[in-house]
Amino acid sequence: MVAALTAAVPALALAEAWLAQYHGPTQQATAKQWLQGHGSQQQIQAALSGVLTQIWRAGFQAGLQAVAKLGVAAVGLLVADLLKQLAAEWLDEITDTRLDRLAAVLANGGTAAELEAAINAVLADQHSAQMIAQTELNRADNAARMAAFRADRVYRVRWVTTSANPCPECVMNRDAGPWPLGHPFPSGVIMPPDHPHCQCHLEPA
After folding, report:
1. Whole-prediction pTM
2. Which of 7, 55, 173, 199 would suit a FRET pair with 64, their CA atoms being 20 to 30 Å apart?
3. How far is CA 159 from CA 64, 111, 141, 171, in A?
4. Model confidence over 136-194: pLDDT tens digits?
5. Before 193, cis peptide (omega within 30)?
């Protein structure tokens, strides 16, 4: 993900283009609007799309394998359809989050060299990349589980925590017991992940 983003967004060229129009600190909303007009949003989204598609595909396979071991038949499910669904729901949001971070960098101002370094720091943020990868892998895993449950007419599920120290919201969802498939759990989501780095999953109740 880091390699894809740094290759897609030329940091120095972006910094110089920004400084050609703006000098000194400015509003983050102005910087974000400028990035969108400059084509940075499309560059980031294209880079993320390729990486996320690979992550989601791996997550789908893991989820389908997991439910098969539980005796759930995932007949007729098309991974391509699941990919389209996740991309439609989450690609824009993930792209927008990264764009907001770049906008904050530009809005703070600085020299071309300072902005280049700050832009590269955002694009090469390993912690953020790992968080996105883990969260989206689990999202795809659970999306595959839900699709398989629907196909096999599993109507009730339970929220399973796997972390040694689950968060309060995930504990609340787990303790809710058997739950109607597709209905929001007490925390408001219909499936894991409930938060970044969430490791929970659904199983038939």
Report:
1. 0.90
2. 173
3. 17, 50, 13, 9
4. 999 999 999 999 999 999 999 999 999 889 999 999 999 999 999 999 999 999 999 99
5. yes
Provide the CB-side half-sphere exposure for 163 (13 A, CA): 19
Split at pLDDT 50, 70, 90, the class of 24 is: confident
Side chain identity, residue 29: A
Find all residues with CB under 8 Å of 85, minimum gap 6, and list them: 143
Per-residue CA distances from 186 to 16, 40, 175 (Å):
48, 38, 10
pLDDT for residue 201 is more than 90 = yes
- C-alpha span between 156 and 153 (Å, rounded): 9
Residue 154, φ and ψ in degrees, nearest 5: -90, 115
∠ Cα 168 173 175 (to 5°): 90
- Secondary structure letter of residue 205 according to DSSP: -
List, as one string, the DSSP characters of 59-101: HHHHHHHHHHHTT---TT--HHHHHHHHIIIIIHHHHHHHHHH
